[in-house]
Design brief:
Blueprint: H1 40-53, H2 59-71, H3 75-80, H4 87-102, H5 107-111, E1 113-116, E2 119-122, H6 135-143, E3 153-157, H7 163-171, E4 176-181, H8 184-196, E5 203-207, E6 218-223, H9 238-241, H10 257-266, E7 270-279, H11 285-294, E8 297-304, E9 310-317
Parallel strand pairs: 3-4, 3-6, 4-5, 6-7
Antiparallel strand pairs: 1-2, 7-9, 8-9
Helix pairs in contact: 1-2, 2-4, 6-7
Length: 331
Amino acid sequence: MIAAPPVPSPLVGEAESRSDPQKGGEVAPCAPSLVATTTRADSLALLRRAFAEAGIDTPELDARVLLAASLNINAAEIAARPNVALGPAGAERLAGFARRRLARESVGRILDRREFWGLAFDLSPETLEPRPDTETVVETALSFVSDRRAPLRILDLGTGSGCLLVALLHELSHATGVGLDLSPGALATARRNAAHNGVADRAAFLASDWTAALCGRFDLIVANPPYIAFGDLAGLAPEVRLHDPAAALDGGGDGLAAYHIIFAGVRDLLAPGGMLIVEIGSTQEQGITRLAEVKGLKVIKVAQDLAGRLRAVALKPNGRQELALGSGTPI
């Protein structure tokens, strides 16, 4: 991981309110005119200017990534041959990408792929787009594992794209895991991602509503539940509000609705020494701690993301000894 925190991007729960081209009668900015004879350098400049004028946070990066994807080349090729024309197919594809980005669809959504934990993940309309903040859940879970070759059992609640489970299985070579989700489309996407990243033989994906009808014991349970309070949804960045599935965002009136369900069900699913790690909004620590106490859980660790915001909480059932996973020895 890099040492210096990145400039915060419009993340779930932390996004600034922005004008929405699809609301209030506003019209999305027009895409720049791109034709077959437009060069790579000129198209890059046109997209960069259009994205900046539309208020997009990273116009240079987005323009470069979309240009490279439209031509199926890398950034080095753009730099080495800037005066090559786009050609008819490249111009048409890039223009389509530009229109979608100006409508505030994220680059990941446009390309149907997003990197998480150094791995590539397919996206679908039914899945939340993985973001760097969620890597804090993976880091926190791994911090409790003393032996990364131990045959741990992992449960991922609301798996979505499968990013949490797949990342953990990638790091824990002898672990197995189960990802649960209500959406058939999300489960299909998660299965593809497990296969693409070489862990399909150690992962199962099942349809379930959180912990309902689930049995067995798990050493690690992880979740990135919806935690945006209903009243805050309208203030999310358009990339999130318009294009991530509402069910993955809406946490009810106080943002804690899903945690009530998860905390009530995990005690019977955690193995001795097992841990629950959940992602939270940066202002939810006190609410999560109070809810955990009511549900018989104890907060063991609160972790910050790279921007210094509270992002992940590790919990265990009250009255159980805290053990290092994989060794069975007290921490």
